[in-house]
Specification:
about 400 residues, alpha/beta, eight-stranded parallel β-barrel, two-stranded parallel ribbon, 15 helices, 10 strands, about 15% strand, elongated, binds 3-methyl-2-oxobutanoic acid, binds zinc ion, cytoplasm, metal-binding, leucine biosynthesis, manganese
């Protein structure tokens, strides 16, 4: 296995509890948020965005308690570009051993029109609010919302202002999931080249999945120099969601040969947290979702089953155990073959002779034509029936 210890470290910033919880219907209770934050901390997430403290009393209390209980992760809260939001945010995160204030403002033409600020007025607002945040806290993240649709000259100008005012992380959000991988990389590269002081801060990538490119865009940004990925468990998030944590982390691990960056995530904790987030948010994970979907490590077709029974790597590029999944990877259905049936029968404790196996196989195929999935109990019943007839 490759020695990754000297590779550049990519920080994982999880925003399941903030951007993820903003998905309509994904609201979590106070206790559920505490539980998810604990799991994120345990799995090695570098920064947990725990909520938006000004949004409600409940959000404030959740961020505060998560901050108090945090062990290793930096605890971050979100604040708009005004003193009231920033003060409230700091009141909540200050209880953490490692607090962070994350403040943002929309910088694209469409977003500038909302507060009706001129470019100069917005620049001044950024200077004042980042300075204020930095006076409260050493760790300040600043985001130009809708960065990917902001004019490059203006983007460079406001990022320079934020860095001079004390921001330590500059996050580049693709707020509406509009960018594409090459553009995502070019943008980060351009900012690193053009903005004075860019080499003194961490650049982050924050992608939404409206065109299904959030993971690809985040990884492209890393290859161009971003060193923090913002993501959520199961890709939970508004509209089509955010970059999925499990996807970027496993992509960096499985394709470390071409993307030589390391994260601090204990990947064996992925499956458990995915299931907990799905359960507490009420958002089911689609069966064919990369990494954590029910079918992601399951094989039904005869050719695939035969292949994985002989050598798991024939049809699997990573081990299920690497994400903490220890369930069986063979699903019995109408596409399954004799080899899979034999292996399944042995697993269930039946050592069938060739003739018996053939008979059970015929009956199994007939059953599989009527049922989508044939369960272990069905197979046991088939064998017992068969033995009864012999
Ligand atoms: O998508 C976005 O622009 C955000 C910001 C608040 C960072 O979530
Ligand atoms: Zn977002």
């Amino acid at each position: 296995m490759t020695d990754t210890s000297k590779q550049d470290r990519v920080l994982i910033f999880d925003t399941t509890l903030r951007d993820g919880e903003q998905s309509p219907g994904a609201t979590m209770t106070h206790d559920e948020k505490l539980e998810i934050a604990e799991l994120l901390d345990e799995m090695g997430v570098d920064i947990i965005e725990a909520g938006f403290p000004i949004a409600s009393e409940g959000d404030f209390n959740a961020v505060k308690e998560i901050a108090e209980r945090s062990k290793n992760s930096v605890i971050c809260g979100l604040a708009r570009a005004n003193f009231k939001d920033i003060d409230r945010c700091y009141e909540a995160v200050k209880h953490a051993a490692k607090p962070r204030i994350h403040t943002f403002i929309g910088t694209s033409p469409l977003h500038r029109a909302i507060p009706n600020l001129t470019m100069d007025e917005m620049a001044e607002r950024i200077h004042e609010t980042v300075t204020h945040a930095r006076n409260l806290c050493d760790n300040v993240q600043w985001s130009p919302m809708d960065a990917t649709r902001t004019e490059h000259d203006y983007l460079c100008r406001v990022i320079e202002i934020a860095i001079k005012a004390g921001a330590t992380t500059i996050n580049i959000p693709d707020t509406v999931g509009y960018t594409a991988p090459r553009e995502s990389a070019d943008l980060i590269r351009m900012l690193l080249e053009r903005v004075p002081g860019a080499d003194e801060v961490v650049f982050a990538t924050h992608c939404h999945n409206d065109l299904g490119m959030a993971t690809a865009n985040a990884l492209a940004a890393v290859e161009a120099g971003a060193r923090q990925i913002e993501c959520t468990i199961n890709g939970l998030g508004e509209r089509a969601g955010n970059t999925a944590l499990e996807e970027v982390v496993m992509a960096l691990r499985v394709r470390n040969d071409i993307m030589p960056y390391r994260t601090g995530i204990d990947t064996t904790k992925i499956m458990n947290i995915s299931r907990r987030v799905s359960s507490v948010s009420g958002f089911a994970v689609q069966f064919n979702k990369a990494i954590v979907g029910k079918n992601a490590f399951l094989h039904e077709s005869g050719i695939h089953q035969d292949g994985v029974l002989k050598n798991i790597e024939t049809f699997e590029i990573m081990k299920a155990a690497d994400i903490g999944l220890h369930e069986k990877n063979i699903a019995m259905g109408k596409h399954s073959g004799r080899a899979a049936l034999r292996s399944k029968m042995q697993e269930l404790g039946f050592d069938l002779g060739e003739n018996q196996l053939n008979d059970v196989f015929v009956r199994f195929k007939a059953l599989a034509d009527r049922k989508k999935e044939v369960y272990d109990d069905d197979l046991v019943a088939l064998v017992q029936d068969q033995v009864g007839q012999d």
